[in-house]
Write a structure and sequence with these properties.
Elements: H1 2-18, H2 21-43
Length: 51
Amino acid sequence: MMSLIFLLLLIAMLCAFSGKKSISYVLFTTSVIIGLYWFHHHATDPLSILL
């Protein structure tokens, strides 16, 4: 899943450098939303620690 986020960011940067800013904004926003979802998934995942 992390590689998907970095791949989207790479494609967004390449689009921004080539002049396609609207596509770049969409890809960047999508990667931020996926990253926030991934963080929320891991931050709220219960740990199975038996003490």
